[in-house]
Amino acid sequence: FKGGDTCEYLLSSGRFLGEKVWQPHSCMMHKYKNSEAKNCLIDKHVVFIGDSRIRQLFYSFIKLINPQVKEEGIKHGNIPFEDKSASIKVDFLWYPEVNGSMRQRIKTWTEGSVAKPHIIVVGAATWSIKIHNGSNEALAQYKINITSIAPLLEKLAISSDVYWVLQDPVYEDMLSESRKMITNEKIDAYNEAAVRILNSSSRNSKAKVKVFSVSKLIAQETIMKSADGLHLPESSRDTNAMILMNVYCNKIMKPIDGSCCQPQPPLTLIQKIAFCFFILSIIGYLIISLIHRNNYRKNKSCTDLESGEEKKPAISTPNVSTLEMLLHCFCKLGLIMTYFYLCDRADLFMKENKFYTHSSFFIPIVYILVLGVFYTENTKETKVLNREQTDEWKGWMQLVILIYHISGASTFLPVYMHIRVLVAAYLFQTGYGHFSYFWIKGDFGVYRVCQVLFRLNFLVVVLCIVMDRPYQFYYFVPLVTVWFMIIYATLAVWPQIVQKKANGNCLWHFGLLLKLIFLLTCIYFLSYSQGAFEKIFSFWPLSKCFELNGNVYEWWFRWKLDRYVVFHGMLFAFIYLALQKSQMISEGKGDPLFSSRVSNVLLFISIVSFLTYSIWASSCKNKTECNELHPSVSVVQILAFIFIRNIPGYVRSVYSSFFAWFGKISLELFICQYHIWLAADTKGILVLIPGYPMFNVLVSTFIFVCVAHEISQITNDLAQIVVPKDNSTLLKRLLCIAGFFSGLHFFSAMQDQSRH
């Protein structure tokens, strides 16, 4: 709304989310770790000049580099700090008044022979008010002194980062008698003088002294917690130090969740080619549409003036050609990708940090569950895990995961552990669904494989190009893709064992079980052999797909986290289909799955198992330890849910059409949230309407859901064109796709070379 200078917003405006989390206006602030702070400030010299308040800021700043530092320096003297491992020097210089001494010190840095500090933080006023009893003469002298210092600071600002820290308000009721003359009225007068004088003579934007005024806003909220009414509580000064670190380091370190002070990334070669392609698609579609419209007008029926009857045209309206449909899809996709880019790569829209509260997660959960119950309908079939039921399952899980992401609930371990089960349930359905298809249909043709791979990966490949992100960044799609190929390989490799063959000879069932045991053995081996796993996925071209930040560790971690659940899904499908074939279960409308006694016992065990897992997950204290157990125990709650949902016939016979609708576009919702609902690659929240959080969520959610639905339609339409049933045509398309990826790899190599 006011331009793209997020640095200015970071230094001057913001609000608290809760009690301790500071949210700058319009952008996101990164929380720097010690290692990151050292990497940013390596070989740098930082100087803090001022009074005891600046000394507080100095200590908070150096604790970001070394948390072990204790505040033991001389109170009214200079304090040096050095980190020899990173060659970082940070000095505090005691100059409590803006006077000739401070001016002389600053002047020495403007002389050519002296090395200039890289960062200079200056601020003082309360001592002048105290020593001179708040007199007007002292304020007049302060203005004269700061006027003489201002040109020197502006000269330093050409090559260094110079910050003038405005004076924080005080809590007058807590001030000691010797400080009673320090009033907020006086502080405001001194601040006003500093802001008016600084940069008044500078016309060069590079020579501007940055006014650090955000500290005032932070102090207004927290000064009541001060120990003496003058000095800020520790949490507030730590926030100021973190802001200072973000202002200087974000442009150097470029953290994903630190959008403040980060310049807009330049367009890559691949992005430029992609945008040109989409523009040509839009132009091509418009030309074809105009041609068809003109042809339609020429052939339009007209009225016979004599009989008053309408004459039919000799030529009927032509059907939509493949080319027109293709261009129409790419036209829509181009407009949608432009929106993606503007939301998460350009500086057009604001971004904010997430902030978790129990109400921000649980209230929306209750709301959508109530909505889901209102949209209850009868299912077309009453089989276990029928299509409507699995769509419903995917839908409500996806909505819960979306709320989990936007509310920042990953910081609350019990919620995190339950969400891990939902992700595992998606993979369980992958194992169940694909195994069932191959087992029943026996269709191992290339067409089926290409259809599934295209539908899974199309959107992600486009986003990798447009948003300049690696394939592994959208980790869930690589995960599902690899597991699909594993399922396919397990069943397609000789001997191909399918239901039709197994029905003729029961021994084939044991053959399939041997295949599943071999698969489980391979999974177990790879999960405990990181080296072997990394070797497999470090080979080209797999490395291009599965590396993130130069290694495949992230991919190994993601794969390992749910390593058994796809196998569990396959095994469940095998057992269920065997029971169904032998008519040991009843799937009639309204009928319980088993006999009444067995159904009641299984239902009781399922409810107890479901609640037991929830109690265990809610009592988790250590995320690492719980993640270690999760792959083995997540199936307990998944199976418990399936039994609770399917054993009673009346429950199995109904479904929520509300959840099922979302389930049909669950993959698109999961991927699209990265850039057009969340922001900064899921680390923050997109702000289309600043100042109105609830209204903003409603608007951004509406657009997000519509876009996901549209992309689902585009993917389905393109799948019919790109992956035809005719084998010879499909082979040609596959050669074209291979050429496309070869070109993409070539341009990617050119990009990497130019970056280096």
From TrEMBL:
Q: Report whether Transit peptide shows up as a keyword of the record.
A: no
What GO CC terms are in its UniProt record?
A: Golgi membrane
Q: Where is the Cas1p 10 TM acyl transferase domain?
A: 253-734
Major subcellular site = Golgi
What membrane topology is annotated for this entry? Answer: Multi-pass membrane protein
| Location in or out of the cell | Golgi apparatus membrane
The highest taxon in the source lineage is Eukaryota
The NXPE C-terminal domain is annotated at: 22-72
Q: State the EC number(s).
A: 2.3.1.45
Membrane-crossing ranges are 269-291, 325-343, 355-375, 396-417, 452-468, 474-494, 506-526, 561-579, 600-617, 659-679, 685-709, 730-750
Instruction: Please name the GO terms of the biological process aspect recorded for this protein, alphabetically.
Output: carbohydrate metabolic process
Recorded hits in InterPro entries, A to Z, give: Cas1_AcylTrans_dom, NXPE4_C
GO molecular function term, any single one: N-acetylneuraminate 9-O-acetyltransferase activity
Catalytic activity annotation: a ganglioside GD3 (d18:1(4E)) + acetyl-CoA = a ganglioside Ac-O-7-GD3(d18:1(4E)) + CoA; CMP-N-acetyl-beta-neuraminate + acetyl-CoA = CMP-N-acetyl-7-O-acetyl-beta-neuraminate + CoA; CMP-N-acetyl-beta-neuraminate + acetyl-CoA = CMP-N-acetyl-9-O-acetyl-beta-neuraminate + CoA
The entry's keywords: Acyltransferase, Glycoprotein, Golgi apparatus, Membrane, Transferase, Transmembrane, Transmembrane helix
Q: Which family does it belong to?
A: Belongs to the PC-esterase family. CASD1 subfamily.
For this entry, the protein name equals N-acetylneuraminate (7)9-O-acetyltransferase
- Originating species: Grantiella picta
- Write the lineage as a comma-separated list: Eukaryota, Metazoa, Chordata, Craniata, Vertebrata
